[in-house]
Amino acid sequence: MRTIEIFDTTLRDGEQSPGVNISTNEKVEIALQLEKLGVTRIEAGFAAASPGDQKSVAEVAKRVKNATIVSLARAVKDDMDKAYEALRNAENASLHVFLATSPIHREFKLNMSKEQVLQRAVEAVTYAKKYFKEVQFSAEDAARTEIDFLKQVVEAVIKAGATTVNIPDTVGYMTPIEYGNIFRELKQVPGADMIRLSCHCHDDLGMAVANSLAAIEGGATQVEGTINGIGERAGNAALEEVALALETRKDYYQATTKMNLKEIARTSQLVSRLTGMIVPGNKAIVGANAFAHESGIHQDGVLKNVTTYEIIRPESVGFKSNKLVLGKHSGRHAFKEKLIELGYHLEQEEVNAAFAAFKVLCDKKKEISDDDILALVDAKMERG
Ligand code: KIV
Ligand code: ZN
């Protein structure tokens, strides 16, 4: 069983979600919770982006003791100097330096040749190594980079001392098979087995988690992502989904994380509250409906044995229990259980009459509350 390292970038790429701005104190609160969650690397921000970000990275670096604290930097000395300043008091620090490698970025954004990109990447890693033992290099837009050139860059930055090389799918363009194959290729690069090979996926086509899992199959040893999948545009790979996919399908992936899964619900709720980004009800693992059953057939199955319709126990990710939601698709079995939970022990005939009244009410209301059921049964009883 392989252990996959988790690199959380909620405080950096996650904060790049349009409209999100996390204060220094809030960043510290989230970072401390991420540490409880068992994340081993926390990207606290982009120190050169603003004085506020530099302060946040410094504060997180001061307060978090076990996880490695990371600051992002462009491949320019001033950015790396600012990151170094911010990370001065960290128990464990790492610099994350990035430079785009794809033809589109080389031509339209950087106006640099392949040779210039290669040289700048090596110079940046060499400079960063003066300050940091741990240096991560990211080839921005790696997924759209010519594979032979990407291999050249990866080999060169490893030689320059990079301890992690990250292969971002910056614009969420990959399919799982394509992305997994990039990692299979990069595994062949000299020195690749001595470093962390990291994946970083965006969700533009809704494949960030699938692509991250494909990268693990292809040989990635680190996964980057955010809590609740927040991030630039459509967001990043949701770390709670990656962790649960590995845990639930250990038999298939033969890989696990060191995450304390019971802290997932609390972490998700904290990030949602402090970023103001609402978690959709149908979001996997942490959505309000992730462990709710409405259909009568499903409710009957779950009441007989939860494994009929649940592949994850809600308690295992920190929720109290599953929910049987009463609505028009619900059946007699769940309705009767609800009556017992509310303190009624009715004869079967009384249950049948209350159930019929409940179904009529369901056509008028989307979700039926406990108070609705109390009112309905009491009215039935009064009428006899
Ligand atoms: O998506 C991306 O390419 C990034 C890099 C800065 C790692 O976020
Ligand atoms: Zn990103």
From TrEMBL:
Principal EC category: transferase
Pathway involvement of the protein, from the record: Amino-acid biosynthesis; L-leucine biosynthesis; L-leucine from 3-methyl-2-oxobutanoate: step 1/4
Gene Ontology terms: cellular component: cytoplasm
Domain Pyruvate carboxyltransferase: 4-265
Keywords on record: Acyltransferase, Amino-acid biosynthesis, Branched-chain amino acid biosynthesis, Cytoplasm, Leucine biosynthesis, Manganese, Metal-binding, Transferase
Tree of life domain: Bacteria
Cofactor entry: Mn(2+)
Catalysis: reaction(s): 3-methyl-2-oxobutanoate + acetyl-CoA + H2O = (2S)-2-isopropylmalate + CoA + H(+)
GO-annotated molecular function: 2-isopropylmalate synthase activity; acetyl-CoA C-acetyltransferase activity; manganese ion binding
One of the protein's GO biological processes: L-leucine biosynthetic process
EC number of this enzyme: 2.3.3.13
Subunit architecture: Homodimer.
Chain's role: Catalyzes the condensation of the acetyl group of acetyl-CoA with 3-methyl-2-oxobutanoate (2-ketoisovalerate) to form 3-carboxy-3-hydroxy-4-methylpentanoate (2-isopropylmalate).
Family assignment from sequence similarity: Belongs to the alpha-IPM synthase/homocitrate synthase family. LeuA type 1 subfamily.
Name of the protein in its database record: 2-isopropylmalate synthase
